[in-house]
Structures are given as structure tokens and as C-alpha cells.
Amino acid sequence: MYTTIVVGTDGSERAGVAVRQATELAGLTGAALHVVHAYQPVNVSQVAMAAASGAQTVDMEATNAGLALDSERIVDNGATNCRRQGIDVKTHSRAGDPAEVLLDVATELRADLIVIGNRGMTGVRRFVLGSVPNKISHHCPCSLLVVDTS
Q1: Domain boundaries along the sequence of the chain
Q2: Residue 132: how many CA atoms within 13 Å on its side-chain side?
């Protein structure tokens, strides 16, 4: 049924519900599981704007290295339970928009299924920025399972 499943996580408990569902599906189908986290690196314009408003200067390189390290920790934590269950799991930590990163990984791997949680931004921000599940549902290159994480 499925050979490659991609699941997104932000490290939250709600995202953990989606990871557990993906793990269960991978176990039932023998699929390889790929746990994905996206992070937003700090860029020069953000540092310049902060400095112009009187904020302390930050070491952009060190900050971005810390964000990448945190992202690695998040995917490793997400994969821990999968490994305990004997699931073939790989982790992907990438800089970028969460929806774009998930779609890119799924496309690169020719995934059969993307699993994501349904909770994220709500209210006006959801309509202005677009939620991750909404973006993915419009551009998904494969089947999509949106898990109720409430």
C-alpha cells in the first residue's frame, strides 16, 4: 500500500500525534518513514531591522547554527519511538517554509503519503499566511493524511 511516508513535526505534543499515526501506518505497511522539520534561519535584513530598532546585535551564524541544531534534535526526538518499534526511519532537518520543505522532501523521495496534523495557525493569521495543512493540501504530490491532533 505505502512504501514511503513523510511526516512533519514541529516538536510539539500535537505534532507528536501525527508522528505516532505515521509510525503506526509505517509499521502496518512496512513503509519507510521520514520525519521532517523545517526551521527559519535568521537573515541579514532581520538582523539589520532589529539593530535599527535598538535591539542587541546577534551573531547570525551562531544563531542559525543553534536553530539547525534544535531542528536536528526535534527530528531525532520524533524518530526515537519509531526506531524502538523497528520502523525504518530517516530524519530531515531543513531551512525553509514548513509546507515547502515537506512538499520538497515528499517529491524528492517520491513519497506515497504525507502525514500532518490539523492544528497550527488559527484566526486571521491562518488566512493571511496560510496554514501548513492548507498549503500542502493544494500542492501535495501524493496522498495526504491530515490527522486530528486536538
Answers
A1: 4-147
A2: 26
Look up residue 130 and give its three cell numbers: 496560510
Residues whose CB falls within 8 Å of the CB of residue 29, separated by 6 or more in sequence, listed in order: 1, 2, 3, 5
What Rg do the C-alpha atoms of the chain give, in angstroms? Answer: 17
CA–CA separation, 122 and 91 (whole Å): 28
Q: Angle at which helices 60-84 and 13-29 pack, to 10 degrees? A: 50
Low-confidence ranges of the chain (pLDDT < 70): 44, 46-52, 54-55, 57, 120-130
Q: What is the pLDDT of residues 107-129, one digit of tens each?
A: 999 999 999 998 754 555 444 44
Closest CA to 115 of 102, 97, 96: 102
Determine whether 84 is exposed, middle or buried from the number of CB atoms within 10 Å of its CB (0-12, 13-18, 19+): exposed
Query: What is the CATH architecture of 4-147?
Result: 3-Layer(aba) Sandwich (3.40)
